[in-house]
Design a protein that fits this description.
The structure is a single chain. By secondary structure, the chain is an alpha+beta fold. The chain has one domain: Sandwich (Jelly Rolls). It starts with 16 loop residues before the first strand and ends with a strand. The chain is globular. The structure holds 2-oxoglutaric acid and fe (ii) ion. The site of 2-oxoglutaric acid has 11 residues, from strand 8, strand 10, strand 14 and strand 15. This is Alkylated DNA repair protein.
Length: 210
């Protein structure tokens, strides 16, 4: 697939791997028992990883039922179930570091990887919580690596009653939504009219969570 991502000038290494976590992870508690962790520029070699994934992942478009008609999902998708081989060893390394860092708190490993390709500013994800599986009734975590063009991830309390929070996710950043975030908050990546290159989002989730 043709992608026109202009890589950063500072990230010319081909050494594609995540950095350490530990004290580099910054936690922000949200209301209702939710929190988010941010680790800026976690994925080293993010330019090279972007190009590898853009070229090698079997991206596909989906259509979903919306009330009584079918609509195009406004992004390309590829899902790696727990038994699937991930499309790049850097993702195995990322999953393994996340599993070490969050093991005690999460109580089970991250197992699946959902990949999304936002081709430009018209691609988006609407307000939702990842509420299939454990996230509907219990605390869980969803860990997201963002590479490519920076996009905003918005968060708001479910059912209203609070300000919308905005996190600008940059090239290589890690964001983890935890605690009650999937059931007490919603998240979205809104469309933007700004000229915007492509972005890839990699989401690691525990078994059954979607
Ligand atoms: O693009 C992102 O980072 C968020 C994607 C998302 O929320 C989802 O796939 O459930
Ligand atoms: Fe989500």
């Amino acid at each position: 697939m043709e992608t026109l991502f202009q890589g950063s000038l500072l990230d010319w290494g081909d050494d594609i791997r995540p950095g350490p976590l530990g004290a580099t992870v910054h936690r922000t508690p949200l209301a209702h028992g939710a929190w988010i962790d941010i680790r800026p520029a976690w994925m080293g070699g993010a330019d090279a990883l972007f190009h590898r994934l853009a070229d090698s992942v079997p991206w596909h478009a989906e259509r979903r039922q919306m009330y009584d008609h079918m609509v195009d999902v406004p992004r390309l998708l590829s899902f790696y179930a727990e038994e699937d081989t991930l499309p790049d060893p850097a993702l195995d390394a990322a999953k393994s570091l996340l599993n070490t860092h969050y093991a005690a708190e999460l109580g089970e490993p991250f197992r699946t990887a959902g990949l999304c390709l936002y081709r430009d500013g018209r691609d988006s994800v609407a307000w939702h919580g990842d509420r299939i599986g454990r996230g509907r009734t219990e605390d869980t975590m969803v860990a997201i690596i963002s590479i490519g063009a920076p996009r905003s991830l918005l968060l708001r309390p479910r059912g209203g009653g609070g300000p919308t929070l905005r996190h600008d996710l940059g090239h290589g950043d890690l964001l983890v939504m935890g605690g009650s975030c999937q059931r007490t908050w919603e998240h979205a990546v809104p469309k933007t009219t700004r000229a915007m290159g492509p972005r890839i989002s990699i989401q690691f989730r525990p078994r059954g969570v979607r």
